[in-house]
Amino acid sequence: MISRIFKHGMPCLVAALLFSVKANAQMPDTTGIYGERKDTLDASVFTARGNGNFLSKGKDIRTEVITAAGLCKMACCNLAESFENSASVTVGYSDAVTGARQIRLLGQSGIYVQMLDENRPVMRGLSAPWGLNWVPSQWLESIQIAKGVTSVINGVESMTGQINMEHRKPTDEIPLYVQASLMNDTKADINVASSLQLDDYGKWSTVILAHADRNFRAMDHNADSFADDPLGGSYSLSNRWLYYDPSGLQVRFGLRGIYDAKKGGQLFTDADANPWATDIRNKNLDAYVKVGVPLNEDNSRNCAVVVDYNYSDLDSRFGLNPYVAGQHSAFVNLLYQDQHLEAHHFTFGLSNMLDAYRESLNWRPNIGRSAKFNGNTLLNDLGAFAEYTFHVADKFSAIVSTRADWFLGAGVRVSPRLTLRWNPVDQLVIRANGGRGLRYSTPLIDNIGILSTGKVINGNLLEHPLEDAWTFGGNITWYLPFDKSQKTYISLDYFGTRFVDQMLVDYTASDIYIYPLNDVPEGYSRTDSFQIDFSSEPFRGFTVTLTGRYTDPRQTLLHQSDDIKPMTSRFKGVLNLQYATPLNKWIFDFTASYNGPVRLWDFMADGKYSQGYPLLYAQVTKRFKGFDFYVGGENLTGFTQPDPIIGASSPWAPGFDASCIWGPLMGRRIYAGIRVTLWKTE
Where are the alpha helices (DSSP H) in 470-621? Predict the structure, then answer.
């Protein structure tokens, strides 16, 4: 049945979804609707150089904003490299050979963070392991990181938070922007953006975004015979459109295509050698439509429809083991919003998320058992939601929401959520939020690094049970009274996550076990995360940001000696200094971070910890009229994880493991780049 869906049903489904958009043309664009909500991760436009990272004062939910200026502080070739100034988000590698990246928020894997592209769910399923590498940072206007459970409007997959990306807009009066950079390891990238207004009435506008990157030469700084970063490159093209009519009708639609091909592994060129290598090719296509109009003259009542379709195709080889997979995903969201009462806002809606997977794996480790499957999976989440917002000016707000979802194969689940914000005096903001999150588990895709091993994989990789968690926490931000600009603040926050059920991954020297939390007698999985932030501008042009985060991750596993969650960073501290001369002609950035030890798997060190390590980044930018030139360095200390690949000298042996990564893989890197901006003239 599912195979027929892939062959015949998906084109019909897409056609039906597009027809539904056309039929519901009396609905407003969700960007306008979401922008009215105080807890929404809406866009901010920065026309002057300001703090690269700051906490938003007006949001109901604790939200960290990385601005366009922040995205220029480092090489920042892609989204994965955009969080180095943030203590909230930890970025690492899934393994040492494929280049796949992963993030952690509140001590949990990035699969529990809902990734949004202008409030559309993205980076789900097959695109999750590589999706962070596919978003060029120079395509973005800003990034917003919200901790804890957030709005139910886009589903309940935001178990530890949301990260929303705002792209360059069609209405930007920048007909041409070009950015290019080159690193000393021969990695090069180029980005082009062009925003065009197509008529004199401002109704039609479009933005074209293009990207290409490539590694031209393999590097092996630690002399383990494996490339530190895979060879190859990626290419992507996006076109976004906006139609705006004075009557209130808005239509937004867009298309993005990605081709990503990378080869990693051993560097032997001897014809008689038998190198262990990876060959990974990703193709991704995404299309979306947002349509809407207000239902009355002042836009206090409105409706919206959002339709998104994504296709992912993965053709990969790990050693001699092929993994081939495809995914069709469709997301439909229908909303009605009523704001005609000043202090009371209501939102109601229906949504459906459909995922159809086909997967083929032939796993042949050099010991005993093997894992083979060739199957199709259909996952569906149909939900109805309601949200009520009460606010008293800027002093107090409460958001009460609930959502009932019917999960195919799992039945109906209800997810309540609550958000509170209190501003007793102008210098103090107090926030609290909590609620339930749910998501389908995709065991192999969620843990793609396990394929970069020679171990036996135990567990049903085609089983997709629901993961269920409750997250709660709060934040206090105090804006110091001596700074009238309110750029000086101290912020404290705490968030805790408690899993009711979760798919666990458990390593031994020869095996990897995947099993649900409920299979562990008296099992539990929880994290507690504490963070402090300080930011100030002591004098004009000079900003200081200091943050520290401590996480206590606990998880009971059948094959580990204690309950401290392995391979999870417990502490991270970040200091960022920036100085800009008058008129921003010169800009100097310096970032220092310290990453604390992580508990290693028992088979690596029997309950011991890795070493902590510092990272240093620096950049100098010289701005001219119409273009910027910059030079900088990453990981200036040159620290890399010692022997990141276990058994590198014998990759065909059972103990080979390239997935146990806790530190940097690339040493010191120097780069130079240029940004050229052509502004629209009358």
Answer: 602-605
b/e code 552-580 from CB counts within 10 Å (16+ = b): ebebbbeebeeebbbbbbbebbbbbebeb
In this structure, the dihedral spanned by the alpha carbons of residues 180, 185, 187 and 188, taken in order and rounded to 10 degrees, is 20
Give the integer Cα–Cα distance in Å for 360 and 374: 4
> What one-character DSSP code corresponds to residue 294?
B
Q: Are 506 and 512 in contact (CB under 8 A)?
A: yes
Cα separation, 399 vs 146, in Å, equals 15
* DSSP tag of 9: I
The 10 Å CB-count burial string (b at 16+, else e) for 298-323 is ebbbbbbbbbbbbbbbbebbbbebeb
Q: Are the beta carbons of 35 and 304 closer than 8 angstroms?
A: no
Tell me the helices (H) and strands (E) count for the chain, helix number first: 7, 34
Provide the 3-class DSSP secondary structure of residue 112: helix
In the prediction, which pLDDT does 272 show? 55
pLDDT at 33: 34
pLDDT confidence of residue 51: 63
Percentages helix, strand, coil for the chain (3-state, rounded to 5) are 10, 55, 35
pLDDT in tens, 224-261: 899 988 999 999 999 999 999 888 889 999 999 999 99
Contact 493, 534 (CB under 8 A): no
Euclidean distance between CA atoms 563 and 364, whole angstroms: 31
Dig out the tokens for 561 from the structure: 């000696």
Alpha-carbon gap, residue 228 to 266, rounded angstroms: 10
Residue 679: count other Cβ atoms within 10 Å of its Cβ. Answer: 11
The Cα–Cα gap between 109 and 95 comes to 14
Q: How far apart are CA 116 and CA 285, in angstroms?
A: 16
Tell me the C-alpha distance between 325 and 344, whole Å.
47
| C-alpha to C-alpha distance for 596 and 498, rounded to whole angstroms | 23
Average pLDDT of the chain, as a whole number? 88
Residue 144 near residue 105 (C-beta atoms within 8 A): no
- 10, 385, 626 from 406: Cα distances, Å: 21, 12, 53
What domains lie within the chain, and their CATH numbers? Answer: 2-475+482-525+535-678 (2.40.170.20)
Strand order in the sheet with 108-109: 89-93, 101-105, 108-109
With a cut of 70, list the residues of the chain below it in pLDDT: 1-51, 76, 268-272, 365-371, 682
DSSP three-state, residue 193: strand
DSSP annotation of 601:
P
What distance, in Å, lies between the first and last C-alpha atoms of the chain? 58
Question: Is-contact 211 139, C-beta < 8 A?
Answer: yes
Contact by Cβ (8 Å): 167, 207: yes
Give pLDDT, residue 421. 96
Alpha helices in 405-452 (DSSP H): 443-446
DSSP 5: I
Tokens of 364: 């042949």
pLDDT at 484: 74
pLDDT tens digits for range 298-310: 888 899 999 999 9
Q: What is the pLDDT of residue 316?
A: 95
Q: Where are the beta strands (DSSP E) in 365-455?
A: 371-392, 396-407, 411-425, 428-440
The Cα 120–Cα 208 span in angstroms is 19
Residue 169 CB: number of other CB atoms within 10 A? 18
Q: Using the 8-state DSSP alphabet, how is residue 272 labeled? A: T
Neighbours of 394 (CB within 10 A): 13
DSSP 8-state secondary structure symbol assigned to residue 111 = G
Q: Is 13 exposed, middle or buried (0-12, 13-18, 19+ CB in 10 A)?
A: middle
Residue 652 and residue 672 in contact, taking contact as beta carbons nearer than 8 Å: no
4, 36, 64, 420 from 347: Cα distances, Å: 37, 12, 25, 17
